[in-house]
Amino acid sequence: RAKASLTTDVCFYEEEMDKAVRERRRLVQQLREALDQDQFSLNWQVQASAETGEVTGYEVLLRWIQPDGTFVSPAEFIPLAEESGLILPIGEWVLRKACAEAALWEAPYKIAVNLSPIQLGHVDLPRLVHQILMETGLAPHRLELEITETAMIADLDRTTHILRQLKLLGVSIAMDDFGTGYSSLSTLRAFPFDKIKLDRSFMSELDGGPQSAAIIRAVLALGESLDIPVLAEGVETLEQLSFLRDQGCDEVQGYLLGRPKPVADSQLQDEALTMWNGEKIVFIAEAA
Ligand code: C2E
Ligand code: MG
Ligand code: MG
Ligand code: MG
């Protein structure tokens, strides 16, 4: 009996695996069509100075809406795009589209574009970025490229060489999701990043205990001593914003300031604005 049930389990497992593999194949096929059929669009999420609330820039986030209206999260399709190699044409599309849009804005805000490690492994990247800047007329200092440390792990020498070439073009390089990987610190040593983006997991755990607060303080101190500005991701509450301001954090980004939107609008969300308009004192007094 035990044996029979084991066999059933194995069959069930194989069936599930099959299903998962087929589902993935289907998604890759759809992803392949998405670019040709114009199913991608860009969202913009505001970034601001923690001290003054002034808008400093926008992060570009890719959106995929299928013809039937289904929204697929980048957390789901970016890994698939990476495995299938489609990230190269998709990433190029994002870069070109983002630069072209931002070049038309009246206010010359900075834009931050996410790069996949696969794109970095591609030797032509500095040339591609240069070409897109020329084509779109975007001033190089307005472009910031975000990379995660996974990009650095594969081939450190090669990656830092490519990053240096990119910096020579006048663009800046931010380290994304700082603190989540295995070697965040040695990555910082390997290359002079222009910005550290502290991962939003530290923000969401801020209320959970003293550890996250201590880590955030330590990262801010690290940024200070390395002379690298720190941006905190995932700021959702006034309490978090207040804490970050008190600790001398440079920039903030998160739902409190604004959700990612199809159009970059320079209006911060009301709650955050209130904070910067000097009502912080009232807010703290109320809490006491
Ligand atoms: P990321 O680069 O760390 O981007 C920030 C993510 O956090 C975005 O998720 C954003 O919507 C979300 N977020 C922002 N503020 C808050 C907040 O206050 N609370 C919470 N809970 N979340 C917040 P999104 O748009 O789903 O993107 C997920 C990831 O997909 C990005 O993480 C990035 O790694 C990747 N991605 C997005 N667009 C691109 C792209 O064009 N190219 C590449 N290579 N990756 C991309
Ligand atoms: Mg990012
Ligand atoms: Mg991030
Ligand atoms: Mg992230």
Structural overview:
- By secondary structure, the protein is of the alpha/beta class.
- It contains 12 helices and 9 strands.
- It has an 8-stranded mixed β-barrel.
- The longest helix has 35 residues.
- The radius of gyration is 21 Å and the shape is globular.
- The C terminus is likely disordered.
- One magnesium ion binds next to loops.
- The site of one magnesium ion (MG) has 2 residues, from loops.
- Keywords: Membrane, Transmembrane, Transmembrane helix.
- This is EAL domain-containing protein.
Percentage of β-strand residues = 15-25%
Average pLDDT: 90
- What characterizes the major β-sheet? 8 strands, mixed, barrel
Taken from the alpha-carbon principal axes, the silhouette is globular
Count of helical regions: 12
Q: Encode the helix/strand succession as letters.
A: HEEEHHEHHEHHEHEHHEHEH
Uncertain segments of ≥5 residues (pLDDT<50)?
A: 281-288
Protein name: EAL domain-containing protein
Domain EAL: 24-274
Topology of this structure?
Blueprint: H1 2-36, E1 40-49, E2 55-65, E3 71-72, H2 74-84, H3 87-103, E4 110-114, H4 117-120, H5 125-136, E5 143-147, H6 150-153, H7 156-168, E6 172-178, H8 184-190, E7 195-198, H9 200-204, H10 210-226, E8 230-232, H11 238-246, E9 251-253, H12 270-287
Parallel strand pairs: 2-4, 4-5, 5-6, 6-7, 7-8, 8-9
Antiparallel strand pairs: 1-2, 1-9, 2-3
The structure holds ligand C2E and magnesium ion (3 copies).
One magnesium ion is lined by residues 177, 199.
